[in-house]
């Protein structure tokens, strides 16, 4: 109990310190508490270092740390290396366009390009579905799992939960606490508080995570002998989580979608006072993603495979076991604070972005044009968290957390990206053609994933299917536009991506 008390005191102290630092930094900076731009874009005031910190920690959470290390192979580093390409796309291609069109949400750009609010609402609903049923429950599960391991709560009878007869009841209870704490920044502080807490938490997380990498390497004397070559290789076969060929097909489009059109990520870069300030932050985030994140998400997992003392630690237990066994007691509590901070910031980032999508894209269009932004955002955030718990059991027995997240998001990501590609590259496109093509793309990927399972469980061949889904959806939209709605699409990329004023 003495060791656990030390962990708990360090954990609570650091968690409180981050909250207090965020409060004092934000105090007095708010100008219009109920305004959309203030609540969702921090009043356009985020400096580049807060953009970099928030982008980094919004993405780097337990689904990466637990899920990628759980694969116990170097191959998964491609997710992070390829992310650098996605951030470069955001920096030099997409962010100038969002600023040019003065967008609050990424989907607002679609309404402006198609001159139709319904396409904006459809894509927002798909984003919301992904946030509710994929990202939020996966992050809560990963955070609960690591927290339970680090504090020895896997078997502890929290509030008599074991007597309920519910499998993983402890994880549910921890997830509830995490969800409540994670909602606080998004509900009460808006994007400004979210971004600032992200940055403070990110410094703590990256520092200790790099120390875990060092301790892991030291524990095996920097000797990787005995580990199967395929676990150290960056060239994956067709049964691996990332077959090598997929790097040149669906992987590129996954990164374009996630980093350049996903509201949860782009919202941070859209909250700077200028394009140049935003670009500095994005490039800093890309540097972190290239140099720091890959070893964090692969080396502890590979080391766990070699540890004979614990046997072959499998799947999602690998990272938590390494951290618990190698870190000194006081740092164990500090890392728990860092992990929970990562979980909380990911949750509050998703909630703030989701509230922006609902308020700006749906509520103001179809329900009330002038709502109380903060009050409505609170209600939306509470509803999202409650719905996310419906999907929690899907991940509770997962052996490949990150693979499941990526595979599930394929149902939505490529159809969403198709709407952006058609809308940005062409003009004179009837919105109804995209409104039909996008659901058709969802159905096609469903068929690929459910009705045509030609790959083993754990294989990343679904990434090829994502590329095919995108090609089909874009082609169908252009076909319907030409032959059903009798309109000829006109190439317009030079106007969209040029430096002139937005063509409204």
Helix share bin: over 70%
> What portion of residues belong to β-strands?
under 5%
**Largest sheet properties:** 2 strands, antiparallel
Which sequence of SSEs, written as H and E, runs from N to C? HHHHHHHHHHHHHHHHEHHEH
Overall geometry comes to globular
Output the CATH topology. Sodium/glucose cotransporter
Count of β-strands: 2
Low-confidence stretches: 156-166
* Terminal CA distance: 65 Å
**The CATH fourth-level homologous superfamily:** Sodium/glucose cotransporter
- Tell me the number of helical segments per DSSP (H or I, 4 or more residues long): 19
The CATH class is identified as Mainly Alpha
Instruction: Compute the CA-based radius of gyration.
Output: 22 Å
The secondary structure category is mainly alpha
Question: What count of structural domains?
Answer: 1
Average pLDDT number: 83
- What spatial order of strands do you see in the largest sheet? 1-2
